[in-house]
């Protein structure tokens, strides 16, 4: 009885601390989260609103582009709603913004506190390094999911007025799920780098460089005769299955989730073995 009585309060206290870390992380990031949410949804809906004009004149506007470039930029079917959204809104604007969004969130998991010197104070509480990363990353996942859900609602709001009814709400949901996982994988990359480097600015910059390189690899690998390299890019698993046409791509979602987990686990392993005083 004594053992049970002693253990249960500790378990309850641990759960309370973990929940508090998640809530505090989201609360401390509320302004930046609001800014990213507004920025991503505003850009997506604004470009989606151009579709009626593109449907009428898009073919003429892109016919002078080389065939290889149209293929690389996914502009061969730009006059259809899935084709337009897949090449511009969800093929360029949203993924690049969410990449930077994920990098910014991931850089805050441990690197921000380590850089400001408050990490030791935080870990003085009954909170392990593993638990800290796990709870901070859980907050990142919640934030990415929330932004993607709002993006989905925003796209449904403009769907009728922008003549995008060819894309069903379920297929918009499939694409927004891919947006969430793309945000998460770059957040996981930044989390892993931050667990090793501990410098927020460097973490964000390195994650952004990797992200831009990955986007370029996905976009131009075939044109460079390196088609196999596209499979190394998370952007391939983000949009290669064309969720706006084909709905949920469960294998691609699973790959993005598995790689995200591997990056966080690898970063956590290194973080637990680092001397944070250096």
From TrEMBL:
A molecular-function term among this protein's GO annotations: ABC-type transporter activity
Signal peptide annotation: none
Superkingdom assignment: Bacteria
UniProt keyword terms in alphabetical order: Membrane, Transmembrane, Transmembrane helix
GO cellular component: plasma membrane
Keyword tRNA processing recorded: no
Transmembrane feature ranges: 33-51, 84-105, 137-160, 172-196, 203-230, 250-269
Protein name as it appears in the record: ABC transporter permease subunit
Lineage start: Bacteria, Bacillati, Actinomycetota, Actinomycetes, Mycobacteriales
